[in-house]
Design brief:
Layout: E1 6-11, E2 22-23, E3 28-30, E4 39-44, E5 51-56, E6 61-66, E7 69-73, E8 77-80, E9 89-96, E10 106-110, E11 140-144, E12 149-154, E13 157-162, E14 166-170, E15 174-175, E16 184-194, E17 199-206, E18 223-228, E19 231-236, E20 263-270, E21 274-278, E22 281-286, E23 294-302, E24 305-313, E25 322-326, E26 330-335, E27 344-353, E28 363-365, E29 368-370, E30 373-374, E31 380-383, E32 392-408, E33 433-438, E34 453-460, E35 467-472, E36 475-481, E37 491-498, E38 505-514, E39 520-530
Antiparallel strand pairs: 1-39, 2-36, 3-37, 4-5, 5-8, 6-7, 6-9, 9-10, 11-14, 12-13, 13-24, 14-23, 15-23, 16-20, 16-24, 17-18, 17-23, 18-19, 20-21, 21-22, 25-32, 26-32, 27-31, 27-32, 28-29, 28-32, 30-31, 33-34, 34-37, 35-36, 35-38, 38-39
């Protein structure tokens, strides 16, 4: 038997202004639980004109109101922008259930400047990623597809936006210094926001591993901060020496990326530990003693994410501007143009051999044999002489990846990075999902017994809707308004059907999500089959 599930967008031209509730007597609707009032509010600020709010709760969504503004968020936190730094902001937070019913409000009052998260131990200037020219080629190298990068509206400005997998390699090193009053020898700060499927990784790479291709496996001696909606994870190379240092974690209601608000993470390096702090609260730690004194940060993003700022704290260092000259695959890798080496102080060839190779790699650069050295188990490097230009690079065995990293003179401006275009705000494109299961555990694909009950579940991922409708074989079983106290939110709806109400054979279920203002309705269908005998 074939199961069909489709999503169709229809014009919602003929629906009534306010859909009326209808529940067919033959079905049982599982009523949504009343929303519980949120609790345990916390307030902080990353900028003098913003507030980060967090609270406890397990609702499908929350409505946040302040002044003339209203925001609906799907996680128990929100960020407010455009505030007066010295005025108290009064905020009401309500839980919202799938039919739009609101709970009693949780009231929060805070003055942004008084809850500001300090970043005074960072070295200025801090990268703020706040304009089309914010990616300075002296500061950064783009890894992956530059077309992934753009600008996302935020507050009164814009920030660096990722729409797909890409990364940034910092040209400025972090040099550890004398321990400060907190025992910290170096810091790396990153402020970001992400979606449900986002992954942001901040990796600290000992020199010269910053020249490794991306993506690659774990680098030897590296430390990695991994951020996702599930939380924050701090990992260190297992070969780094461990210590007996004990680091207590703070009490944070959430530790990961949030789709609706920024958070600031700081990796703090001490002589006997590495600590990750989110908005001033310790959320992860590793009891290791790093052997290096200089590292280069690398930021890698999978999925959609926004980067707001980046900064270092340690011994002040100038950036080491660098540019990348791509080469071909195979054995004849192409030449290094003369103009690429005009401002060079060094040039390093990076090779990733084809895994099918059986012989050691040898490199010829314009008739000169170059010695190679291992960077990792998978990557090799060779230093290129700067007095041979337009020379061809050849290898005796095929390579899968090849390029040259050219380190430029101080103050030089490598090739321009792409000017960042504006990105449209992310649209909620989560289609509704319709699932069917017999109470015996049988799912579509196998015929249902002619007795018992059928559970129909409608999961609505888009919060902009005013009702849902369920039909079977063209007969309406349910019209459920979802705007009881205000706009509808994402959620889960369940109804029970009696199998005895259906004849033997196939039947078609249809779920329609009705949007507000006669917008586009979305339908999803699925089929099931009832067998003739028990």
């Amino acid at each position: 038997m074939i199961v069909v599930a489709t999503a169709v967008v229809l014009r919602h031209e003929s629906a009534p202004e306010r859909p009326e509730r209808f529940v067919d007597p033959s079905i049982e609707l599982v009523e949504a639980a009343a929303p519980e009032k949120p609790g345990n509010p916390r307030a902080s600020a990353l900028d003098p004109d913003t507030l980060q709010l967090a609270w406890s709760g397990s609702a499908e969504a929350y409505e946040v109101r302040w002044g003339d503004h209203t925001q609906v968020v799907t996680s128990p936190e929100a960020e407010l922008t455009g505030l007066d730094p010295d005025d108290e902001a009064e905020v009401e937070i309500r839980s919202v259930n799938p039919v739009g019913r609101r709970s009693d409000p949780l009231t929060v009052a805070a003055i942004p400047r008084k809850v500001l998260v300090s970043k005074d131990k960072l070295i200025e200037p801090i990268d703020r990623f706040d304009g089309p020219e914010s990616l300075d080629p002296r500061q950064w190298r783009v890894l992956g597809d530059p077309a992934c990068l753009g600008l996302r509206p935020f507050g009164t400005g814009k920030r660096l936006d990722f729409k797909c997998a890409a990364g940034l390699q910092a040209n400025k090193p972090l040099r550890l210094g004398v321990p400060d009053s907190d025992g910290v020898t170096g810091r790396v700060m990153i402020t970001a926001a992400g979606g449900q499927q986002s992954h942001v990784q901040l990796e600290l790479l000992p020199e010269p591993l910053q020249d490794l291709p991306w993506p690659m496996g774990p680098a030897p001696g590296a430390v990695s901060l991994d951020l996702s909606s599930q939380g924050t994870r701090l990992t260190a190379d297992p070969k780094l020496p461990t210590t007996e240092k004990l680091i207590a974690l703070g009490d944070a209601p959430a530790t990961g990326l949030a789709p609706d608000s920024r958070h600031r993470w700081e990796v703090r390096i001490m002589k006997d530990a590495i600590v990750a702090v989110r908005d001033g609260v310790v959320v992860a730690a590793e009891a290791v003693a790093v052997p290096w004194t200089v590292v280069r940060p690398r930021i890698m993003v999978e999925g959609e994410a926004m980067l707001d700022s980046f900064g270092l704290g340690g011994v002040p260092e100038r950036e080491v501007p660098a540019t990348v000259v791509p080469l071909r695959e195979g054995t004849d890798l192409g030449s290094v143009p003369r103009q690429a080496l005009e401002d060079a102080v060094s040039a390093r060839l990076i090779l990733v051999p084809n895994p099918r190779n059986t012989q050691p790699i040898t490199v010829d650069f314009g008739g000169v044999a170059l010695p190679t050295k291992k960077l990792t188990e998978d990557a090799l490097a060779a230093d290129l002489p700067l007095n041979r230009t337009d020379a061809v690079v050849r290898t005796n065995q095929p390579v899968a990846i090849g390029y040259v990293v050219v380190v430029c003179k101080p103050g030089a401006r490598p090739g321009a990075l792409p000017r960042l275009p504006d990105h449209e705000p992310a649209a909620n494109k989560v289609l509704p999902k319709l699932t069917i299961m017999h109470d015996s555990g049988v799912r579509p694909g196998t015929q249902f017994p002619p007795t018992g009950r059928i559970l129909v579940t409608a999961e609505i991922g888009n919060g902009r809707h005013e009702a849902i409708q369920i039909e079977v074989d063209g007969k309406r079983l349910l019209m459920l308004p979802t705007t009881e106290d205000g706009p509808g939110v994402s959620g889960r709806h369940e109804i029970w059907l009696r199998t005895t109400d259906f004849t033997a054979g196939g039947h078609r279920l249809k779920l329609t999500v009705l949007p507000p203002d006669h917008g586009e309705a979305v339908t999803t269908e699925a089929v099931f089959e009832v067998r003739a005998t028990a």
